[in-house]
């Protein structure tokens, strides 16, 4: 299963989902009560995203932003996928999908400055999406105006790398900035 769909599913569960089931006895004889084959909790509540006083609103906006990111960059259908870092100590995962670099910091309290991230292509990278945006209920700790320039040299089995700030409990997506062609006046 794709990590985005998995994380999205975990993030948008508005309440528990309890599928209809009957009482049963386990092989060791223990009794496990069912729910009377009830469909009451076997549903999704999509109305919760419209409630401004709940955090589900931010999740709905994040889902919308992910959809726009896919439309612009087409990373979900790209064949290029590479996981460059899975650091248990830092609780950081870095991977490439299409022309994007994704950085997930799952650490509960540790933010990292000057964190080196390996990448395939040289050039200038910019933040195109971050979960710390106030629109998504975040704290705005990441600048969207910053530019990240790659350095030559192998890092995490990637030929290029750049330095970032990765706050705790965030996901940030970086995109390679294509050179803008400026028309020449004659």
UniProtKB/TrEMBL annotation:
Leader sequence range is none
Q: Which GO terms describe its molecular function?
A: 1,4-alpha-glucan branching enzyme activity; cation binding
One CC-aspect GO term: cytoplasm
A Pfam family matched in the record: Alpha-amylase_C
- Write down the InterPro entries for this protein, in alphabetical order: A-amylase/branching_C, Glyco_hydro_b
| Biological process annotations from GO | starch metabolic process
The highest taxon in the source lineage is Eukaryota
- Annotated membrane-spanning segments are none
* UniProt domain Alpha-amylase/branching enzyme C-terminal all beta: residue ranges: 82-176
Q: What PANTHER family does UniProt report for this protein, alphabetically?
A: 1,4-ALPHA-GLUCAN-BRANCHING ENZYME
Q: What is this protein called?
A: 1,4-alpha-glucan-branching enzyme 1, chloroplastic amyloplastic-like
According to the entry, what is the taxonomic lineage of the organism?
Answer: Eukaryota, Viridiplantae, Streptophyta, Embryophyta, Tracheophyta
């Amino acid at each position: 299963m794709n990590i985005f769909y998995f994380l999205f599913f975990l993030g948008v569960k508005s309440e528990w989902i309890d599928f209809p089931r009957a009482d049963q006895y386990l092989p060791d004889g223990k009794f496990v009560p069912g729910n009377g084959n009830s469909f009451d909790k076997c549903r999704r509540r999509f109305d919760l995203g419209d409630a401004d006083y709940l955090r589900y609103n931010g999740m709905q906006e994040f889902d919308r932003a992910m959809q726009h990111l896919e439309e612009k960059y087409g990373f979900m259908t790209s064949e290029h996928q590479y996981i460059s870092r899975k650091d248990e100590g830092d609780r950081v995962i870095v991977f490439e999908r299409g022309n994007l670099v994704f950085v997930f910091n799952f650490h509960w309290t540790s933010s990292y400055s000057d964190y080196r991230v390996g990448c395939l292509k040289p050039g200038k990278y910019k933040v195109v999406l971050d979960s710390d945006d106030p629109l998504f209920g975040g704290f705005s700790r990441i600048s969207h105006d910053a530019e990240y320039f790659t350095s030559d040299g192998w890092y995490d089995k990637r030929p290029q790398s750049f330095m970032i700030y990765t706050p705790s409990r965030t996901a940030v997506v970086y995109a390679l900035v294509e050179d803008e062609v400026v028309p020449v006046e004659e």
